[in-house]
Specification:
This protein has 331 residues and is an alpha+beta fold. Helices cover 68% and strands 11% of the residues. It has a 4-stranded mixed beta sheet. β3, α9 and β4 form a beta-alpha-beta unit.
């Protein structure tokens, strides 16, 4: 005997669940929550559109000025900005794809595309770092004269462009790794542009052209530092690891405290998309009806306290032997 209880609180399905929640006095809360998610998605789409256009225009201009002023720092930053544009475009497409409700063989839609985009974004940045280091080291031992005025002006413009677009992503960066990746890269770009501007000032007064290459290497260091966590976290999500914001032992303890539950096995928590966490578990119960009646309230708690929006809990009588026969003791 088994009973599954599923609650998915994604924006697409919110309306379908509102009627059920109304019986428990939660209709208005869930309706507002769904509206907030839809509003956040619209804001993110707008931020990606602005970010792609502004950064593409800026990196083209920065590469031109870098070539004209003979600044490897500007060229390096332009190359980095271009990979950011590609990453932003991928993340934008992934965001659009993840809003598709799905159908046919795609029962979850394309929500995982946002995780794939974050991983590709991080991988592109790491690959670009290898080429940048190679060129910077060569220029460090053979420095060339740098035209500092266009370098400083362009870098200051980069602070404005990257700082503004990073600000657009700041609000959504807490809950979505895809958005957080965009925010981290743009915020790092603003900091890097500040470093380039300062290097231009130093070169102007000291005429030490090798400083340009040194700053370029520091830029690469910033890129690696901000990218590594994004790359590793997106990889962990791709292999269905428990999300970082989830304490699996606390979730296990919570499920075991559900009235009537006497045992727990096959507990799994993973990310379907960058902002949608799922859970599945089998619970053994001495009083199946009592446990089933308690499941609904438990799923509310999983959503509100543990940020698990899509829990599935199967209830079985203690003597079913499921954990030995079919399910496996994976908990």
């Amino acid at each position: 005997m088994g009973v599954s209880n599923v609650h998915e609180h994604s924006p697409e399905d919110r309306h379908d669940h509102d009627h059920d929640h109304e019986e428990h006095g939660g209709h208005d809360h869930h309706h507002d929550h769904g509206a907030n998610l839809e509003s956040a998605t619209r804001d993110q789409k707008r931020a990606f559109a602005i970010g792609v256009v502004l950064n593409l225009a800026f990196c083209i201009g920065e590469a031109f000025v870098g070539y004209f002023s003979n600044s490897m720092a500007l060229i390096a930053d332009a190359g980095h900005n271009f990979t950011d544009v590609i990453g932003l475009a991928l993340a934008w497409v992934a965001l659009l794809a993840s809003t598709w409700r799905g159908g046919g063989r795609f029962t979850y839609g394309l929500k995982r595309s946002s995780i794939i985009a974050a991983f590709i974004n991080g991988s592109l940045l790491m690959v670009s770092c290898v080429f940048l280091v190679w060129e910077c080291v060569a220029r460090f031992f053979h420095p060339e004269p740098v035209r500092t005025l266009p370098l400083i002006i362009t870098a200051l413009l980069g602070i404005v462009v990257n700082g503004y677009t990073a600000w657009l992503f700041m609000k959504g960066s807490k809950d979505d790794i895809n958005v957080r990746g965009a925010f981290l890269h743009l915020a790092a770009d603003a900091a890097v542009s500040l470093g380039v501007a300062l290097s231009g000032v130093v070169i102007y007064y000291t005429r030490l052209n090798w400083i340009d290459s040194l700053v370029s290497l520091l830029i690469v260091g910033v890129i690696i530092q901000t990218t590594w966590s994004l790359l590793t976290e997106s990889l962990m999500q791709l292999v269905d690891a428990v999300p970082r914001h989830i304490d699996i032992e606390k979730v296990r303890a919570f499920l075991l405290k559900i009235p009537g539950v006497s045992q727990l096995h096959d507990l799994h928590v993973w990310n379907i998309g960058t902002n949608l966490t799922a859970l599945s578990a089998h619970v053994g119960s001495k009083d199946v009806l009592l446990t089933i009646n308690s499941i609904h309230e438990a799923t509310h708690e999983l959503r509100d306290t543990y940020k698990i929006a899509h829990p599935t809990i199967q209830v079985e009588p203690d003597d079913s032997g499921c954990e030995q026969k079919d399910c496996g003791p994976n908990s």
